[in-house]
């Protein structure tokens, strides 16, 4: 797995590189701004990019914009975005570009090596990974008249874990229920969120986007 890191905090940038190399991964380049990051993507053609949300010069959304541009230049590039805070609008901007191989994690998760590495491998494998804290805040802040209000407490639990990227078996293990029960809950979630079967749409990702878009429009 070839990785490029874009992070303007030198300590975190070098710490990430050391961590990933210690795990046997190939960090081919690091960057402290969007321009050098995109140049590194063009030069090294990495499999995964780890990108900070807030980067120079304005420290607003340069990282998100660079991540979107990197995926335009290199279709299929897996992107794991890191942020110090839950920033729903920025998460929405990235995920609405479509496709898998996307993750949005809080920087504090890096210190929890097992969780961080699991998210990285999930994204590199074509899946999605959204920080549990992001999911929790989306669930608690959603307007009461939204489609979310239709979900039962158990369905909300299932969706929260689904949004983190867990599969049915892992959700069943977390909630101490059967795989069949999880499958039933997920069918109900899709129905209540009005997500009909569509070969062109990953309904799991669509359910997460439903929350992100709802928060961004508040």
From TrEMBL:
Residue ranges annotated for the HTH luxR-type domain, each copy included: 144-215
Positions where 4-aspartylphosphate occurs in the chain: 52
Pfam families: GerE, Response_reg
This protein's name: DNA-binding NarL/FixJ family response regulator
Coiled-coil ranges (or none): none
Organism (species): Catenuloplanes atrovinosus
GO biological process, one term: regulation of DNA-templated transcription
Record key words, sorted: DNA-binding, Phosphoprotein, Transcription, Transcription regulation
Gene Ontology MF terms: DNA binding
Domain Response regulatory: 2-122
Membrane-crossing residue ranges in chain numbering: none
